[in-house]
């Protein structure tokens, strides 16, 4: 078949299913929440407009003079009454010094003999910002809950399926020639318990059938040996008779003799096979006793258990010839030298067998000297991929500090994403403008480039410390950008937009320089590796210094440009 099925681990399969269903539910619930809140806010705005319109009518009864509160309320006298109009419109808002979208309600009323058109407006942008902030907050909360449940579910699945994988490994090791029962782990789950019960019944049945088949083979072998020997002897007698045989008779008898010899050899092989499977050869414990002696007790020496062996006199087995001359007692009672039943040669032994998850492994460890972990692993991967070809069933895994580093990177990446989302939510709640929130987050993320550039220039690896510095820079730049825009909003209304930007930047310039300079001066000793333990925090210091230096042009140049573009 051209197509092959891709093998997927069971836990990974269930995790992917959980991820897919959860992501779909999260997306559907977010969209549904958005439209529900949108309709709810629209209803609230319309009710507020009608309530405001009713209060205005009451005030006109007492004071019939029309008035105007631009752009929220407009009252005009008209010649005739018209129909009520509810619509969205865009008008100039002096308080914000820009065009804004409003929800507008226009009604006509006859009060004290005069016709009035009453127009009431509500700012739509505030409602939209509140809606977006609520939806994003909901999305962040659901995402955090989803990640928590994912890790809990993954941990639970690993514990739940541990007995299954243990039993699977036991099935792989199952041997028909062994009398030891298969050791299955009980998980306390009904389905797994039933599976274990069926496996035990099946293995016992297979082992019983196998032994019966071996016994039958052995019996047939023994039963055939005697008739074949008799036939062989009679054929030899016929061939050796005094009366000569013609060529045809001699050839036929010779052919029959060859066939009988082949049958005899086959029965001998069957007998040998059954002896091997039934452990009818000499027990290996005889050799262990002659070479190593017998363990009769043990003592504790230097916190280690040491065996006490009883060694027989004259058991000097330092050479291959000595081992070859050892004698074995066969089940039949015969005593033979070891060299007649075994081939003895010197080979390389295994000092230690390491296992992980019940699988044999070979462990290679090393220590780093004046090199970082990332570049070292890159060189190791390249050399292994070009110089080593692994046979089927073998694979290479990288553990130790590298495995811990990769796990820490994943966790820090989640923390970084969560921090960005939380900062975005705070900005959205504070200013209620999604464009400003996106602009500040964009500038904060650009600050990461300064961290990476400083790490690249200094040849510092990307590790847990530098990752922590990147997360700090995102928060620092976001905080400074928030203060700058807050200063911009608090400017005098009479100032133009460019003047507001210049004023806010000028007001925040000194605090930014003081903060950045103080932080950089404090981190320089760590960045240079001065002092005991400074090398541990050196990547963090380099990342923070690079981010702070890169943050100054972002806050003093890029942020004003973005504010100007958003205004235009």
| Mean pLDDT, all residues | 75
What share of the residues lie within helices? 55-70%
Number of strands: 11
Total number of helices: 12
From the coordinates shown, what is the CATH architecture of the largest domain? Up-down Bundle
Judging from the principal axes of the Cα atoms, what is the shape? Answer: elongated
Ends distance? 63 Å
Could you explain how this protein is built, in words?
The chain has twelve helices and eleven strands. Helices cover 63% and strands 12% of the residues. The longest helix has 53 residues, at 10-62. The chain has helices at residues 10-62, 124-172, 190-239, 247-277, 284-292, 320-324, 373-387, 401-431, 434-458, 464-489, 497-528, 534-567, and strands spanning 68-69, 73-77, 85-93, 98-111, 114-123, 294-301, 304-310, 327-329, 335-337, 354-356, 359-361. It folds into four domains: 10-140, Beta-Lactamase (2-Layer Sandwich); 190-277, Helix Hairpins (Orthogonal Bundle), CATH 1.10.287.130; 284-329, no CATH class; 403-567, Multidrug efflux transporter AcrB transmembrane domain (Multidrug efflux transporter AcrB transmembrane fold, Up-down Bundle), CATH 1.20.1640. Helix 1 (10-62) runs antiparallel to helix 2 (124-172), helix 2 packs antiparallel against helix 8 and helix 10 (464-489) runs parallel beside helix 12 (534-567). Strand 3 (85-93) and strand 4 (98-111) form a beta hairpin. The radius of gyration is 44 Å and the shape is elongated. It starts with 9 loop residues before the first helix and ends with a helix. Strands 1-2-5-4-3 form a five-stranded antiparallel beta sheet. A two-stranded antiparallel ribbon has the order 6-7. Strands 8-9 form a two-stranded antiparallel ribbon. By secondary structure, the chain is α+β, with helices and mostly antiparallel strands. Residues 212-279 form the Signal transduction histidine kinase dimerisation/phosphoacceptor domain. Its EC number is 2.7.13.3.
């Amino acid at each position: 078949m051209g197509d092959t099925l891709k093998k997927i681990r069971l836990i990974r399969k269930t995790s992917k299913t959980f991820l897919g269903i959860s992501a779909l539910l999260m997306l559907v619930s977010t969209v549904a929440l958005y439209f529900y809140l949108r309709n709810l806010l629209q209803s609230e705005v319309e009710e507020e407009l009608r309530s405001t319109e009713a209060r205005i009518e009451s005030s006109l009864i007492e004071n019939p003079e029309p008035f105007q509160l631009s752009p929220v309320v407009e009252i005009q006298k008209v010649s005739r009454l018209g129909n009520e109009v509810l619509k969205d419109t865009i008008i100039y808002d002096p308080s914000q010094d820009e065009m804004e979208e409003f929800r507008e309600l226009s009604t006509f009323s006859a009060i004290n003999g005069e016709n009035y058109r009453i127009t009431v407006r509500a700012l739509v942008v505030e409602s939209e910002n509140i809606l977006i902030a609520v939806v994003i907050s909901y999305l962040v909360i659901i995402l955090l809950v989803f990640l928590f449940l994912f890790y809990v579910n993954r941990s639970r699945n690993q514990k739940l399926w541990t007995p299954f994988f243990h039993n699977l490994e036991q099935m792989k090791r199952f041997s028909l020639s062994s009398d030891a029962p298969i050791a299955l782990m009980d998980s306390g789950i009904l389905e797994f318990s039933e599976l274990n019960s069926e496996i035990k019944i099946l293995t016992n049945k297979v082992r019983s059938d196998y032994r019966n088949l071996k016994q039958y083979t052995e019996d047939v072998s023994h039963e055939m040996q005697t008739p074949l020997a008799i036939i062989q002897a009679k054929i030899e007698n016929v061939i050796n008779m005094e009366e000569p045989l013609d060529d045809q008779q001699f050839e036929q008898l010779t052919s029959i003799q060859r066939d009988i010899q082949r049958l005899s050899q086959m029965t001998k092989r069957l007998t040998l096979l059954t002896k091997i499977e039934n452990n009818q050869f000499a027990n290996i414990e005889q050799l262990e006793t002659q070479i190593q002696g017998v363990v009769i007790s043990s003592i504790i020496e230097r916190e280690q258990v040491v065996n006490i062996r009883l060694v027989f006199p004259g058991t000097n087995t330092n050479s291959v010839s000595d081992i070859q001359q050892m004698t074995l007692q066969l089940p039949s009672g015969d005593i033979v030298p070891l060299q007649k039943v075994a081939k003895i040669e010197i080979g390389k032994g295994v000092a230690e067998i390491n296992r992980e998850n019940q699988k044999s492994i070979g462990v290679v460890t090393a220590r780093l000297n004046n090199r970082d972990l990332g570049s070292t692993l890159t060189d190791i991967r390249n050399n292994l991929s070009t110089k080593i070809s692994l046979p089927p069933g073998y694979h290479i895994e990288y553990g130790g500090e590298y495995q811990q580093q990769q796990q820490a990177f994943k966790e820090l990446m989640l923390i970084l994403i969560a921090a960005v989302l939380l900062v975005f939510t705070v900005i959205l709640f504070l200013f209620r403008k999604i464009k400003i929130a996106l602009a500040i987050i964009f500038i904060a993320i650009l600050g990461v480039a300064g961290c990476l550039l400083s790490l690249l220039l200094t040849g510092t690896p990307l590790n847990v410390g530098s990752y922590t510095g990147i997360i700090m820079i995102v928060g620092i730049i976001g905080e400074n950008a928030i203060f700058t825009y807050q200063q911009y909003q608090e400017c005098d209304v009479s100032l133009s937009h460019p003047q507001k930007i210049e004023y806010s930047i000028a007001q925040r310039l000194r605090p930014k320089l003081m903060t950045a300079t103080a932080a950089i001066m404090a981190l320089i000793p760590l960045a240079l590796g001065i002092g005991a333990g400074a090398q541990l925090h050196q990547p963090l210091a380099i990342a923070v210094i690079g981010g702070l230096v890169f943050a100054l042009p972002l806050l003093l140049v890029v942020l004003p440009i973005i504010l100007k573009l958003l205004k235009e």
